Amino acid sequence: MKKRVLAIAMATLLCAGVFAGCGSSSNSSASSGSATSAASSGSTSAAASTSAEATTSTAATGDAEYAMVCGTSVPDAHPYCLGMVRIGELLVEKTDGAVTLDVFGNSQLGSERDLIEGLQLGTVQMTTVSTAPLAGFTDMFLVFDLPFLFPDTETARKVLDSEVGMEILHSIEDQGIKGVAWFENGFRNVTNNVRQINVPDDLKGIKIRTMENQMHMDAFSIMGADPTPMAMGDLFTALQQGTIDAEENPIPIIETNKFQEVQDYLSMTGHLFSPAPVFISTDYFNALPEEYQTAVLEASEEAVPYQRQQIDEQNVSGLEALQADGMEVAYPDQEPFKEVTAPLYDKYIQEGAGMVSPDIYQRVLDVMAE
Length: 370
Ligand code: EAX
Hints:
Blueprint: H1 2-15, H2 26-42, E1 66-71, H3 79-95, E2 99-104, H4 112-121, E3 126-128, H5 153-160, H6 163-169, E4 177-187, E5 189-192, E6 207-210, H7 214-222, E7 226-229, H8 235-241, E8 246-249, H9 251-256, E9 265-267, E10 273-281, H10 282-287, H11 290-324, E11 328-330, H12 335-341, H13 343-348, H14 358-369
Parallel strand pairs: 1-2, 1-3, 6-7, 6-8, 9-11
Antiparallel strand pairs: 3-10, 4-10, 5-8, 5-9
Helix pairs in contact: 1-2, 3-11
The structure holds (2R,3R)-2,3,4-trihydroxybutanoic acid (EAX).
(2R,3R)-2,3,4-trihydroxybutanoic acid binds at residues 73-74, 112, 129-130, 185, 211, 232, 249, 253, 274.
């Protein structure tokens, strides 16, 4: 029912001309129509019960030849949305408004898995997601799911921007998912409602939501927690209703989702770093005239420093806000957490399906050591 309401709302928006180029050309009608089907195919979020609302409409003039739609799982104020909006602004500048990008946050167009599939199905043109849910599509990104792989943000960025980082980013182009830039989500920390997490044992028996990723679930199981995979759109309600006790995310996600309203404790475990590839549908990209393809690649690349700066800033301002709102923050020693999760390296760095390629792992280590 919710889905139908959203589809109708989307259709109404389309008719009201909120989407650029509504009916003005075959290309834009195609992508506008796509937004309707993306909406009807996937969202389970609370936002879906109201109506879809774009963070920006760079397409306001209605003259776009190519009106692209981007979905994300995060609130409008999160750096994913801010970065995608920046790409849209740059695209409009570079193409004189011929190519536009409307950004829909809050899982309005579906979960991260829906959005990745949406690129393949052509129901959404762009997205940015954590790498973890890509585990359902490819093994290439799994190296980033090894706990405590990166010591700091600078090292993570060095790897993402390196040759092996770019190879991973571009690795699923032939599956309909073309990587165009590396945004980021950042270091993940544990929040919960039961007790402060200072050592792995404190996680014993705690029901924690993880992303849909076997290695993440394994990491929390091995630490004694009880992990449940869940899409982002269902998380706030699950925490509020107490069906789960805990979740883990970077500060900007915690703060923009207002998880502090339903979580008392924040433990700065930094157990994983989530990179965020910016994707465009391969088919859609290939159908663009060459000059617009160049504009997409340039706009995406140029938005990267801005997006990372937003992450840096929100890591500081978000933490202040969480503390001001009464969250109790701990800075545990990472060593005991590293020790407990270390066996995952042997378990997962192997040839085979669902495993981290030893070659890729070694190349990542080489870049880190440079
Ligand atoms: O990618 O699902 C998650 O916890 C992610 O960190 C979030 O949606 C952004």
